[in-house]
Specification:
Blueprint: H1 2-10, E1 15-17, E2 22-25, E3 37-42, E4 45-50, H2 51-60, E5 64-65
Antiparallel strand pairs: 1-2, 1-5, 2-3, 3-4
Helix pairs in contact: 1-2
């Protein structure tokens, strides 16, 4: 599953859990880079994580494609 999640992140999809205010996405500026860094938001905090770690967290936390409160359904 994580390969599919990586491809969806690279296509701009946002994964998250709106109830717990957790979101993972790939910012537009990271598309096409050698080592893209995703963003994980938890409440008001933000942290950069690798694409591999983001895919792992999506699986571990069972996050689903969702709508971000300010970005919408896609990050770019």
């Amino acid at each position: 599953m994580s390969r599919i999640h990586k491809e969806h992140l690279q296509a701009g999809y946002i994964f998250g859990d709106p109830t717990n205010e957790e979101y993972i996405y790939l910012p537009a500026g990271e598309v096409g880079t050698d080592a893209p860094m995703c963003v994980i938001e938890r409440g008001s905090s933000r942290e950069d994580i690798s694409l591999d770690e983001a895919a792992h967290l999506i699986d571990t936390l069972t996050l689903k494609a969702c709508q971000h409160p300010t970005l919408g359904r896609r990050s770019f």
